[in-house]
Structure prediction request, 514 residues.
Amino acid sequence: MRDVAIIGVGMTKWGELWEKSLRTIFTETALLALEDAGVDKFDSLFVGCMSSGLFVGQEHLASLLADDLGRIPVPAARVESACASGGLALRQGFIEVASGASDVVLVGGVEKMTDVTGCEATYALGTAADQEYEGYHGLTFPGLYAMMAVAHMHHYGTTREQLAMVAVKNHDNGSKNPLAQFPFKVTVDGVLNSVLVADPLRILDCSPITDGAAAVVLCPAEMARKMKKPAIRITGSGQATDTIALSSRRDLAWLESTHLAAGKALAMAKRKIEDIHLFEVHDCFTIAEIMVTEALGLVKKGQGGKAVEDGLTARGGRFPVNPSGGLKAKGHPVGATGVAQAVEVVKQLRGEAGDRQIKGAKRGLTQNMGGTGGSSVVHVFEAD
Amino acid sequence: MPTPSRYWREIPQRYRLEAGKCKGCGFVAFPPRVVCPKCGAREFEPTKLAEAGKLVTYTVIRVPPGPFEDQAPYAVGIADLDDGVRLTAQVVDCDFDRLAVGMRVRLEFRKLSEEGHAGVIYYGYKFVPE
Prediction:
């Protein structure tokens, strides 16, 4: 396998982009990444997108986007693993470059979610659960994570306030990210008094419905060192699956696929979790970030709530988690999220993260998951 | 909109709680599977789920998906049935503030939802307090 590096990143302002179509959002972002890399041509394209079929009625997406970008006949493939589609697209790009099949690969992620009503979007997202045995009973994603939260609170005494503190922290970080959908701060009281979505989760515990895209350009590390921007190597990549029905798991308060994917990625990178300076993780709901910090091994099982309360995962803490604002404040265009996590880590490791810069960060990790953790993808990144 | 074949295919589970018991290790698969996730065996015998159990977690859905728009708010829970199978279903005939981990529930046959204006009415199981 060849060493692989990221040489260009692109992201545009996320939000409710009613004036822009899926293809335009993607193409504008992809052009930013190519420009940042200083390359015009690439050998293949991978696009993470969860559900263009349900959100905009469009399948056959990869060819459409290669065409819109003016790059046909380049090989292009769409990658889908629910909300982990972006992270998985990055992994496919990484494998393609590492294997020698391609030299320069463009990896994008995109989701256009506001062309449908809220109920329709809730339905589309719900298809990442077991349709026949969860969706059939009226379960939603907030509902599934709410049941994980109830289990976590029951087993470990995690408090409602600790959940709120995840939102407060991530909005504080997001307030320093000009591309975030909601770049403003929230308070614990504000979260606790926001409207209930699925008890005990409230609207400010949930990541929003977002239109957005993100893109990165990959190439062999050797080639990357001749490019204009500092090369950021992908030194580890790990992926794992778990049951997609939550009820098929014995432990409802544990993310085994994240635990396994992180173990594989760190082993490939020959690093321990303590060696990592910052983390971009999948906080689709506040409880998710608490459970991810446990599954990654930043804290012991059951201690994720206390970790956020003690400031361990704050920007100035021992393990800064989601300096970008996370899915919570930055937004969660589902297929784009995994790629945007890589964009943030690259900016941080290059020292280009502005007011939210983690000083001296040389190694970062991303964790992206689908459904309630039915799939997880973890990557480790290192500056030279 | 799915054709009736999908609904028809799922009737043994929705109406009659039919599961598959692994002849290798006794694991009860619901819905039935081709391969046992515990021991890899491929032979199962039909069995019926236990009709009662206790909640291991629950929530109240306030923002529903399209097909359940007219039912919200409604409670959903996961229960450990008395045969060890873990099952997801709505919890009905129960005030929301009575919901608790450990609460005993039993399965009842109920209407779940309906499809469009003249479509199929979906039936299946729901939990009620025991």
Q: What stands out?
A: Chain A has a mean pLDDT of 97.
